[in-house]
Amino acid sequence: MNPETLIASILVLPLLIAAGIAATGKFPNIREGVTILGSIALFVLVVQLVMMVSSGARPELFVGQAAPGLAIAFKVEPLGALFAIVASGLWIVNSFYSIGYMRGNRERNQTRFYICFAIAICGAMGVATAGNLFTLFIFYEVLTLSTYPLVAHKGDAAAQRGARIYLLTLLGTSIGLFLTAIMWTWVVAGQRLDFVDGGLLANVEISPAVASALLLLFVFGIGKAALMPFHFWLPNAMVAPTPVSALLHAVAVVKAGVFTVLKVSMYIFGADLLNATPSREFLMDVACITIVVASLIALTKDNLKARLAYSTIAQLAYVTLGAMLADKAGFMGGSLQIAAHAVAKITLFMCAGAIYVATGLTNISDMRGLGRKMPWVFVAFFMASLSIIGVPPFAGDWPKYELMQGAIDRGADWVPFILIASSVLNIAYLLPIAILGLMPPGPEEPVKEFKRPGGAPALTVAAPVFTAFLCLILFLLIDPIGDFLSPAINAATTTVQEAALP
Question: Which PANTHER family match (predicted)?
Fold first, then answer.
């Protein structure tokens, strides 16, 4: 299959899957078979694109031009390929998990759930492969609109309120700030919005004040990155079913946000211009504040999904921090965090969902002794927690190492202490959950009973166990992943003068 056809296929296939799900909605087994087989087929196509990119190719697809400089075009480079394979790979796992969760919890509107999920994956694939800001913005909004019904899935007052906050915040930031930044870039760059190695704006006459304003508009306008103060939509979206929470936190939405921050930093600004932009240091400070404050808030939450939501806000800020460090190690740390956090956080949320389906429990304080009845779930939770903390040999260790190295290289000697504090706070709000679960119930506590005969469905247990072991595997794959990302990072950190040399 040629590169153009491959790119078109990964964009169209999720829509065909959505149509197939709609057509077979009255037959649950067939409907879910379409979901599983479709997700596997998408992953196979993405792997083929990744292999092309790994060999040095940069597959492209031009669809058309809406106006001068506003082309719908796609180009796959290492960072986008990484996001695409993470999203498509975890969609397979989440699809299996969703079957167990949705059936085990007897959720309504399951056909609509699977349809919206497939459309959201189309949005994620479009964001990953976009060749310019215009194309990226279109699919960024597709992702927002397709996940709104998922957040509102339960249909009660809390779900509707959470969904409204979700939609208004993400549309408000993207249209009010992100789109403004795109339009301004189009003017400054001479009616161009392409992602360019070394930065589209690197060869453009631009004042520090304008560059600062643009950077602020981009970073705060990309609301899916959940940087404070535009983070509150994320905890409010936790009213959604757990597979949706996993989608929001690991597979698509927030990863699309931080991926876009990295993409803009590397391909619109480039390291040279970022380092000459005064607001970069301010945004680095905001990222560090977000890491600490969100972690402290997580400590106060007894609801398990709420605690994980604030954990996500803190962990996402690692990627923004890496982008604002604007050096090779910083970009590498941010890129690795996309994959490492995705695998660990989807594990944690799937464990939370398995506990809920089996017992109906949502508060951490009620889970004492539960680990003895659900050992695999709590072991998976423990392993993913170690990855979030950054303990080797789990994948979360590498991003923190690279971010610390990036901070030291550029003289930001205080940043490693923020990351160390983050790890200590991770220990404080994650490890007690697994430890509490393994402790015996108190003398006056009732014995934990399953509300569902047989406990959690097998798929809701097998899925997080699988992704927990992926945290180990990713740790071992650091060299090939780093080699894969290096061309993009080297290009982003190449100075304008170096690029001009023969």
Answer: NA(+)/H(+) ANTIPORTER SUBUNIT (PTHR43373), NA(+)_H(+) ANTIPORTER SUBUNIT A (PTHR43373:SF1)
Distance CA 301, CA 338 (A): 25
Q: Is 455 helix (H, G, I), strand (E, B) or coil?
A: coil
State residue 448's pLDDT score.
64
Q: Could you tell me which residues come within 8 angstroms of residue 263 by beta carbon, excluding any fewer than 6 positions away?
A: 79, 80, 136, 195
Per DSSP, the three-state class of 303 is strand
How does residue 502 score in pLDDT terms, banded at 50, 70 and 90? very low
Query: Pick from 212, 203, 223: which is nearest to 184 by CA?
Result: 212
- Average pLDDT value over all residues in the chain: 89
Average pLDDT over residues 456-469: 91
The answer to whether residues 62 and 77 touch, using CB atoms and an 8 Å cutoff, is no
Q: For residue range 368-406, what is the model confidence (pLDDT) as tens digits?
A: 888 888 889 999 999 999 999 999 999 999 999 999 999
What residues are paired with 194 via a beta bridge?
Answer: 132
Does residue 496 surpass a pLDDT of 50? no
**Cα(408)–Cα(410) distance, integer angstroms:** 5
Look up residue 146 and give its two tokens.
């397709």
d(CA 318, CA 330): 9
Beta bridge partners of 27: none
Residues 6+ apart with CB under 8 A from 399: 318, 322, 333, 334, 336, 337, 340, 341, 390
Query: Taking residues 412-431, what's their average pLDDT?
Result: 93
317-361, pLDDT tens digit by residue? 999 999 999 899 999 999 999 999 999 999 999 999 899 888 888
CA 417 to chain centre: 25
Q: Give the model confidence (pLDDT) of 22-32 as tens digits.
A: 999 889 899 99
Sequence-distant contacts of 29-33: CB under 8 A, at least 24 apart: 31/110, 31/111, 31/114, 32/95, 32/99, 32/114
Contact 179, 299 (CB under 8 A): no
**What is the rounded CA–CA span in Å between residue 170 and residue 195?**
23
- CA 287 – CA 415 distance, rounded (Å): 10
Q: How far is CA 105 from the centre of its chain?
A: 26
Helical ranges in 24-156 per DSSP H: 28-54, 78-104, 110-129, 133-151
CB 468 within 8 A of CB 380: yes
For the beta carbon of residue 296, count every other beta carbon within 10 angstroms: 15
The C-alpha atoms of residue 325 and residue 411 are separated, in whole angstroms, by 10
CA distance readout (Å), 279 to 11, 218, 233, 275, 365: 35, 11, 25, 9, 42
Q: Which of 355, 340, 377, 376 is nearest to 470 (CA)?
A: 340
Three-state SS at 296: helix
Residue 263 tokens, joined: 């993409």
- Answer whether 327's CB lies under 8 Å from 415's CB: no
Q: What is the pLDDT of residue 498?
A: 44
> What number of other Cβ atoms are within 10 A of residue 361's Cβ?
16
For residue 388, count CB atoms less than 10 angstroms from its CB and return exposed for 0-12, middle for 13-18, buried for 19 or more. Answer: buried
Geometric angle at alpha carbon 140, from 230 and 4, rounded to 5°: 155
